[in-house]
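Memo to structure team: turn this sequence into structure tokens by end of day. - J.P.
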Amino acid sequence: MPRGSKEKYTDKQKRKAEHIEDSYKEKGVSEDEAEARAWATVNKQSGGGERKGGSGQKKSSTAKTQDRQQSARRAVATKHGVPRSKSASLEEQTKAQLLEKARAKNIPGRSTMRKQELIEALQR
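Reply from structure team:
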């Protein structure tokens, strides 16, 4: 027998679970197992009990358009190697990124340096 109250499920979800349960019973599955499988299927398909629609985010169409444009600009900048923000500090970068910068500046001994050593060498 499935656990929990089914009060928060919509009528449509309840009908769907009943239909699925009947289908399992016709296949010879025990009543308890059929009910458990039916509710598991409904939960997987709809995410559980009754839910309010939407993500809760309310944006105007102009705000959405502006966000899309900014996102596209950031994507192009990233593609061309520009860091996400101009203030992206060396500490926020990965060691591989730091090694690449050190290679571009031809810093000697870079391959054996630790991350902090790379940061210090790049700051010089």
